[in-house]
Amino acid sequence: MKLKTILVGFVFVFAFAKAFSQKIHVPVDTTIVSKHSTMIKGKTIPYTATVGFQPVWDDAGMPVASLLYTYYKRSDISNDETRPLVISFNGGPGSASVWMHIAYTGPRILKIDDEGFPVQPYGIKSNPNSILDVADIVFVNPVNTGYSRMLPGEDGKMPDKKMFFGVNADIKYLADWVNTFVTRNNRWRSPKFLIGESYGTTRVSGLAAALQDSKWMFINGVILVSPTEIGFEFDGPVEVANRLPYFTAAAWYHKMLPAALQQKDLPEVLAQSEDYAVNELLPLLVKSGYLEKDKKENAIKKMAYFSGLSEETIRQHNLEVPFNYFWKDLLRDRDGLTIGRLDSRYKGLDVKEAGDRPDYNSELTSWLHSFTPAINYYYSQELGFKTDLSYNMFGPVRPWDRTNNNSGASLRRAMGVNPNLNVMVQSGYYDGATTYFNAKYIMWQLNASGKLADRLSFKGYRSGHMMYLRNEDLIKANDDIREFIETSSQGIEKGAKH
């Protein structure tokens, strides 16, 4: 009996040790293709979905990483010579492509209510607003996001993280990767568009120039969704003044503004707040502590008027109320709740009403309810991709080298070189992380010469960072992309000339 027990235990330990020694396999170069159809704008659209791993090569031609991508191609069009290709990235910089993939432009989106809040059972449904009717789309996961991973060399060692984790390293290897993808899929003739969200806007701004400079691949359009600063530095009085229009938007949504403003529609209120922020508040902030007392008190009253905060709060912060404090304080005396950072329509419930920042990001925790189960289900059950790899919603990419971020200046230069390159900015008014007014400011910096206005456009939406989670804005934002693609494709057959 004892011998039998010992043998069983030995077998168990051996099996456990063997299983433990086996590493999860990361495919280097593979594809899975499936056929589908969906209804978009009332028309049946057949398409293929390709889930693939495509390598990142080092200078010696060895694979050092493998990136997962999902490529949707309309299958009832035989000639893709004039068929646009949209190359999509999310941000983070450690964020997977899941957000825009299954909530914005792709043919399948997650089940949520019309305002973007999670519902159960979790899952996926058809997206009748996808842009797949007018363009093919590839969603790319950079290294350590989604299922994408670094690969060990022949010596078993992992490559240097500096090859991937930094503003310029990221742009360089992704330019190589995109070049390979376009070549493999015979899309060199197609009009090409880059879309990036949040940090993805830094990525695609730099990519537009890198593809043009190093690959001679000229892009037709860049879409900046909830853009970061893309390398344009603004701090001090400019940054502080730029906060106010967002404060106004969030306060208007929660009905915290004075009646004279609250009874007006949002665009009209924001126009007043923007005008005050740029033309009156900014010059006052420049003087800081040397501002005359009467002017300071008047500024406090006006800032309270446009922000929903108390005059005392603004006075105590020397006119510089931090974002964290605003999210904590706006509803403190009314509901005792906090508001979200990425989407200030969302409310949070903290342990204490006291404090200077919320306990958690109410909007992000809500979103993760829906996105995480949906993407895992979708790859496994609908696209036929099965793996023991963990899908990294937010992957380990630290430390991230943010030095020498010239992506915005590079995009501006690329527009000068390429007369066919157009840029559209999309922002949600209730986004407190990458505010809509900062997005406008960035667009203004792109047009430093004053000669690019006809190739730059701004679109605002009554939602937050991921404006497409609200159904009304999902429809509008996708239609705006359709129009942008159509407009950017007009006249290109006549030649690229200024």
Automatic annotation (TrEMBL):
Coiled-coil segments on the chain, per record: none
Any one Gene Ontology BP term: proteolysis
Entry keywords, A to Z: Carboxypeptidase, Hydrolase, Protease
One Pfam family in the UniProt entry: Peptidase_S10
Gene Ontology MF terms: serine-type carboxypeptidase activity
Protein name: Carboxypeptidase
Annotated organism of origin: Dokdonia sinensis
